[in-house]
Amino acid sequence: MGGSTMNGMLSLTTPSFFLPEMMVDFNSSVIGGDEWTRPRRTAPHRSRQLSNKFKIFLRKLFPQLQFVRHSNSKSSLYIMQSSKSVPSLKLNKPRRLEDATKPPDSDLKSRQEVDVSESCPQKPSEPNLTLQKKKKKPRDAEYQSSVQVQEPVRRVIKPENQLDLTEDELEEKITRILTGDDPNKPKNVCKFSFKDRCFKPDPPGQVDNMAVHFSLEGSSMHVDSDECKKYVDRVGRPREQEEPDLKITTDGQSIATTISASPTTSTSMENTKNQFNFSERASQTFNYPLKSSGVNTEPPPMTEYQDGVSQWIIYDSYKSDFLVNQSMDKQEGGPRISLEVNLSSVFEAKHESNDPKANTIHSKSMEHSLKILERLVNQNAEDEIYHDYKYFEDKADEFRKGEGTLLPLWRFATNKTGRKQVTSLCWNPLYNDMFVVGYGSYDFMRQGTGMVCCFTLKNTSHPEYVINTESGVMCVDFHPHHPSLLAVGFYDGMVSAYDISRGKGKLIYSSSLRSGKHSDPVWQVHWHDNGCLSKEYNFYSISTDGKVANWTMVKNHIKMEPIMHLKLSNHRTIMEDSDEPAFTGLAGGCCFDFNKKLEDLYLVGTEEGSIHECSKAYRGQYIKTYDSHHMRVHRIRWNPFHRDIFISCSEDWTVKIWDHKSSKCILHFDLGNAVGDVCWSPFSSTVFAAVTTDGKVHLFDLSQNVREPLCAQKVVKRARLTTASFNMKDFILIVGDDRGVVHSLKLSPNLRKLCDTDETKKEGEEEEKVDGDTFQHSKMMRLLALLGADKNR
Amino acid sequence: MTYPDAVESSTIAEMEETIARISSHKGVEGVMIMDRRGAIIQSTLDEEQTSTHAMILSELTTKVSSIVGMLNQDDELTFLRIRSKQREIMISPDNDFLLVVLQNPKSIE
């Protein structure tokens, strides 16, 4: 077939009335093969005319071809078929539709274009339908005529104008090529340009009439492209380490797979959190201030285990352990026995450890604590008395001149003393609150054991120390420089020295029959105060056996040295009882006192009532004898301020004050009862106290009243006062009675005047610098001068 | 075994007597001896009171003694008195024990 493409514009219209519908683009509609597509935009009536003309034109061109026109409302298709193919249809060979439509002329190599339009599918169906309709009739006829023929007979009814094609022509293959140009688009549209007065292609330049036959969106993209970058940003980068070799070896496809896989892998690997409604929030919580709280808990039970270890204990334990091991080896049933052994040993150890624990209650520190506590308990209990002791001043004294009172403070007594009498009192020279009391009995028929109790004002309910003695204690004395040394004289004539420094009385020396002793009660002991001249402590004692002895404490025993044998003074006995035979014995010494200023001088009071002045230098001879009392002299004391003045008291109810130089009694007082003790006050040279058997304490201040006592107060009922002693520091007087009680009394302000009120004003200014001792001495001197003037008168 | 701190039996009796004396003293409500940790060794109070007192007072004493030590390292607590409206508590501490006495001074009046 000689289908040639007709290029060029066939213009059917004059340029004066150019209509685009009238234009037929021959360039685009290629006449090739048996197909002809009529341009769409042609008007129907005109196109029919055109098609008729065209048919004629085509027949002229291809005389062998038959034209089959398929038309619908919109388009019409002319199928050119070669008439040669018609005879081939007579063959019983089925023909493919394509083959039938194919142009038999295989020589025609020109490009053929098939417009893929909606008319195309109609092309094969139309002839088929006609074929089937035509088949039915002959099949029935044949079926009737020849029953043997199974296969339906095919009769091909050819249209009249069908070309008859040869076998070869039918077999010929006609290649059609799909081009990318849209045939419908006019490629070379020309428009008349009035400006240039000629036709010009419109639009100018190349016209894009590309037809899109097939388009498919791909799912792969290039790695370097922007789209891929956006995708990665949105979804997340694919794990590069996961498939590195894949990426390297293969290209696009593998990348596409990685990208498609990346959302799942990345989510699974990186986003383990909930992807749907996960939200990340952070908030700061309130910081509570720190608090500390404590709770008291009950202390857990504890046990203390304590044991001493010595070599033999170690040895024993080793041995027992060895035995246990041996028994274990011998018999398997041994563990019980060994356990018992162990238990018993442990128990023994515990039992031993109990002893020291029990000891803690009785340790010395416990003793100390107990002592302190007892004092405290006392002070709490006797708070008022302690206040009185320290601060109370009797204000009534301001309105009564020349009178005073004694305020009773404590009673010192223990139930241990029984019916013993207080025979002696002595304040400790160092500790002002401490004093010792000697308990014994003056009654010959009631002698028993004796006691020395050490009291302190800090513990008024109970003595600090108690020393029990075999015999009744008659006298006690503290060493003036060694306050722990205590000398004691007993009723049986013995003397002892105690050391009370260790918290309790410890007997260090005691006289014995071998060392020598008094044969009668020792009425007074006195430490020899020679300062620190001699290393050996020694003290003097006086007894009613008529001896004054000096006791020296050598290394391990006490040595007695009689320094005076009190001979009876003959002058009185001769004078009064000349008829009676003279006493050959010795005078019974009752008391003595050593002069502090004149060391050798001492006074001795005797049972007979006389006072002898003796000297240590002259043994066996009195220096002077005072014709003093008629009855037993109970006490003689030198004045602590004036060396010549001494006082004595006696059973004959009197107290007398003497001047040893004049050997005459300066003053004498009748107290109406036997005077048990007399005592100078340590603060004033003119104040002294005397206690009587009717339980009265008489307190004198000679500077205020030389005749009468400032105070005569009954301290005890139905008891005899036996001893008295002033405290060295406080204005306290202690008196002992025969019922074993010691009373402490506080002096009221009137009783403790150091000097006359008038004199203080005068002399206080003048003798401001004069110390207390000389002042007191001068006071006594004035008193003596006054008394001397009185006597002279 | 011998103990250097041991005292003679006579003084042991004396101390027992002292304790009895203190406890029988007017106004004294009780005497307690305990170790430093509050374990009772001896007491005249009833059990309940004893345990409460022992617990609190031992702790107090430990605190006070530590305070004394803090204020002055060379110092040592020797005695503790607590005076209240009702009574007075006296504590005598030692290395091994505490001696406590409760006293009501007003009961005497």
From TrEMBL, chain A:
One of its GO terms (cellular component) is microtubule. Residues 95-114 have a biased composition (Basic and acidic residues). Residues 89-150 are annotated as: Disordered. Keywords: Cell projection, Cytoplasm, Cytoskeleton, Dynein, Microtubule, Motor protein, Repeat, WD repeat. The keyword Calcium does not apply. The keyword Cytoplasm applies. Transmembrane segments: none annotated. It is found in: Cytoplasm, Cytoskeleton, Cilium axoneme. This is Uncharacterized protein.
Automatic annotation (TrEMBL), chain B:
Residues 15-103 form the Roadblock/LAMTOR2 domain. Its main location: cytoplasm. Gene3D superfamilies: Dynein light chain 2a, cytoplasmic (3.30.450.30). Keywords: Cytoplasm, Cytoskeleton, Dynein, Microtubule, Motor protein, Transport. InterPro entries: DYNLRB1/2, Roadblock/LAMTOR2_dom. One of its GO terms (cellular component) is microtubule. GO terms for molecular function: dynein intermediate chain binding. One of its GO terms (biological process) is microtubule-based movement. It is found in: Cytoplasm, Cytoskeleton. SMART domains: Robl_LC7. Belongs to the GAMAD family. Acts as one of several non-catalytic accessory components of the cytoplasmic dynein 1 complex that are thought to be involved in linking dynein to cargos and to adapter proteins that regulate dynein function. Cytoplasmic dynein 1 acts as a motor for the intracellular retrograde motility of vesicles and organelles along microtubules. This is Dynein light chain roadblock. It comes from Cyclostephanos tholiformis.
